[in-house]
Amino acid sequence: MPVTPAEEIAQRRLMQEAEGELARLREEISVLRRRNEHLSALHETSLGLIDRLDKEELLEAILQKAALLTDTAHGYIYLLEPDASAMQMRVGMGFFKSQIGLRVSPGEGLGGKVWQSEAVLRVDDYRAWSGRLSGKSFDSLRSIVGIPLKYRGRVEGVIGLAHVEAAKSFRDEDVAALERFAGLATIALDKAKLYTDARWELAERRRAEEVLRKSEERYRLLLESSPDPIVVYNLQGEAVYVNPAFEQVFGLRREELIGKNIDFVPEESWPETREAIESMLSGQKIHLFETKRLTRDGRLLDVQLSSTLYFDEKGNPAGNIVTLRDISAQKNAERELLRYHSQLGERVAERTAELAKANSQLAQEVEDRKRAEAELRKREKELKAQSLHLEEVNTALRVLLKQREDDKKELGAIVTSNVRELIGPYLDRLKKGRLAAVQKTLVDILESNLNNIISPFTSHLSARICNLTPTEIRVANLVREGKTNKEIAEVLLLSKNTILFHRHNIRTKLGLRKSKKNLRSYLLSVEK
Asked: Taking the model in full, what pTM does it have?
């Protein structure tokens, strides 16, 4: 049977209504399923967290359960620092694993805002939120939520969870579940804190007991190893402990003394002993009190006695500890010292007389030494006068030497003047005459040598190159005059090769062998 258009429209409307109802039922089922998952998770979490006692493990478990409830892999837990000035990120996962140790103040970032407001805070886009922490590393965060962990009316920490995907966000039922979860987490943390405190207190008590035990062992070892006799009395005067040194010094066995009064005080020492006991019971300490005590074999010992009270746990006197030191040898030595002291007086008198005699001799020696010192000072004055006389003689000699130098200079000037006035004109006339080349050269050499006599060149040359031979000096003079090797050979009647040999020796002796300096230039510089 064909369907009319009206029936077709009605069927479509019914199908649309059925699909809408089906979608609504699916959404309600989904919500109920998520709520059931949250409740199941909370139940499992409460059972799992309550059994955890280690705080660090508990924090990790809390964060993992919270992340599981909200289907995220990114979260952190801040805890309040002891001084309550800041919160520190103690655990982190996902994005926040690299932020562990981060500190925030009240109102700083999401954790600081939750701490300050003591309320849940949800941000849909952290990147655009005005209260975000600065830094590009936080730009990847999108939806984020923070829940306070409250205990006894104070925020002790903050649980934070985040998504880095733009499509994900935290729903109202997620926030509600997290609030309930935070309450359970706070209870678990409080239990862990109580457990930690109890464990610390137990450990401290054990340490204290161990310290007390070791202290008792040390004190017992000290008493046992002490070289001085030690005895411990109760208030009734009965011995409760004696050390090995006590047994050794007094010859009494421990088994004979424990629980009894020790009868080793001689009759003549009882008055001072009773007085010392009364002083001790009044709160005074007995320190190095000298008295006497008897040994088993009847020997009388000189002893130094020190005693102090000890108290029970309520602070009441429980007895006293007595330390004795055998000073019999010391007392015997003191008596011997007194005997020697009387003998020493006589010896001192004798020694004083000897010292007086020695002092008299010493005084005589001092007088002799004073006379010797006076004679020495007189001799020093004479030597000083002689020194002044020598200085005056030296001054006179310096004046004479200066006068001699002046005379030498004056004589040099006279010689120079005579050569130039008496010999120079005749040389000029010879040079103007008709002379052969050799004769003319000899005249030039004669004039040059005369100039050398009256000039400082020869003395300069001798001072600097005193190791030249006479022939080398003549060759050097001719080189300085600008003569060639051939001319020098003709003048000195030598071969040219001999002149070259002498020039080589001159350069070597003058230190010019490896130098490119001209020999004539160097000789002219020597003259200057």
From this structure: 0.35
